[in-house]
Write a structure and sequence with these properties.
Elements lengths: L1 H17 L11 H45 L32 H4 L3 H27 L2 H8 L1 H8 L4 H16 L3 H10 L9 H8 L3 H34 L15 H7 L5 H20 L3 H15 L12 H10 L3 H11 L2 H4 L9 H15 L21
Helix pairs in contact: 1-2, 2-5, 2-6, 4-5, 4-6, 4-7, 7-8, 8-10, 9-10, 11-17, 12-13, 12-17, 13-14, 13-17, 14-15, 15-17
């Protein structure tokens, strides 16, 4: 039955990939809508099943790690965050690996028993992810939910107690604010993403290139306040310890083979040349600059998000959760069939399942991210501006 109901959906996707209609929401018949919701439900159930298998691991690893850091703050032992005082099950004795202010998010959970805290923590991310899906449905139509239900980085990251859904939600919030001509607030939302700062380092560059000064101001204010809060929380000595931690290989990182950025690609291919790494990094940065130079609002968010994942180290499959927004933007706003096809492929579990095969197959994730970035940057800039967004005189997809 599912296969029979899926046929009109695949036909609808094929037709929309072949021909852009220049609309925010595609025309969908009642029967196609039923088929789309049925398939979305099937994929959602599969995600729930897969997530249930990883919940325990998330509880005893990532969540206990953050929970232990928050307990140090509650006990007034802030200066020990970057030492070896964390009690985190298999991660026992490892230092905290985020800006100190990020641990404040977990303080309310650390006031509760661990099992209760983990249940509430998981429920929070589920509600937030559902809100992201609801925004996508309202903005693009029901097919956006189908793409989201197939997209496993967000759902599996959630089940593994990662906070990746937070950054997806912040990206969507920022994009929505910018589209409603509230650039400073949009920049503030981007600045909050500095809690995982290595994946937002390209945003100030993109905003300067596009001369979006008010967004840049919002980003700068928020990220500066987060940095000041971190210093105040752990003091100068704690800040020095954190900087020292950043300069060394992270002891809490999963296998670097699984990275979806270019360092993961080189590692899976057995390339250890510093010169090759430098050349590839410069090339990716050049593609990023080329892509954002004339991009409209959606192009800005799509290219910068993809480039941040492709260029920066310590970017793993769950970090790709924030790619859901570029996938939506590319599929619904691009007029280039290749870009829309790539968006559908990036939404499927296939891209991220190769990491299970180990070297060299794990390189597929990084190759897919790099390819998606290049296609987004090479978008022919011909799509009409969606009515839902503020007019932008620059060429590009809306």
């Amino acid at each position: 039955m599912v296969a029979r109901e899926a046929e009109p959906v695949f036909r609808w996707v094929r037709d929309n990939i072949r021909q852009a209609k220049g609309m925010t929401k595609r025309e969908v018949s009642a029967h196609d809508q039923f088929s789309i919701w049925l398939l979305a439900g099937v994929f959602a159930l599969l995600s729930i099943y897969a997530g249930a298998l990883t919940l325990h691991q998330g509880r005893v690893h990532e969540f206990q790690y953050r929970y232990g850091a928050a307990r140090l703050v509650i006990e007034g032992r802030n200066g020990e965050l970057y030492g070896s005082s964390l009690e985190a099950g298999p991660l026992h004795g490892l230092p905290y690996d985020r800006p100190a202010v990020a641990v404040l998010f977990y303080v309310p959970f650390a006031l509760l028993p661990p099992d209760t805290a983990f249940a509430l923590h998981t429920a929070l991310w589920i509600v937030l992810l559902a809100g992201c899906w609801a925004w996508g449905c309202r903005t693009f139509g029901p097919f956006a939910v189908l793409l989201a239900s197939m997209f496993i980085p967000a759902t599996l990251g959630l089940a593994s107690a990662q906070d990746c859904v937070l950054y997806l939600a912040l990206s969507i919030w920022s994009y929505s604010l910018a589209g409603r001509e509230r650039p400073f607030r949009a920049g503030v939302a981007l600045g909050l993403m500095a809690l995982k700062f290595h994946l937002v380092l390209l945003w100030p560059v993109a905003l300067v290139v596009q001369r979006r000064w008010r967004m840049l101001a919002g980003f700068a204010v928020t990220s500066s306040l987060l940095a000041a809060g971190s210093v105040a929380l752990v003091g100068i000595s704690g800040t020095r310890a954190y900087i020292g931690l950043l300069l060394k290989p992270s002891p809490v990182s999963p296998s670097p083979d699984f990275m979806i950025s270019f360092p993961g690609l080189l590692m899976n291919l057995g390339i250890e040349s510093v010169a090759v790494a430098a050349i590839l990094a410069v090339a990716i940065f050049g593609v990023f600059l080329w892509g954002v130079r004339q991009a409209t609002l959606a192009g800005l968010y799509a290219v910068t998000t993809a480039a941040s994942l492709a260029l920066m180290p310590h970017a793993y499959g769950y970090d790709a959760a924030r790619l859901l927004l570029p996938i939506w933007l590319a599929f619904f706003y691009s007029t280039w069939r290749v870009v829309r096809t790539a968006a559908v492929l990036m939404a499927t579990p296939l891209v991220y399942s190769f990491t299970l095969l180990g070297r060299p197959w794990a390189a597929v994730g990084a190759i897919a991210t790099l390819t998606f970035l290049m296609l987004l940057a090479a978008e022919p800039w011909q799509a009409t501006q969606p009515a839902a967004q503020a007019p932008d005189p620059r060429p590009g997809y809306g």
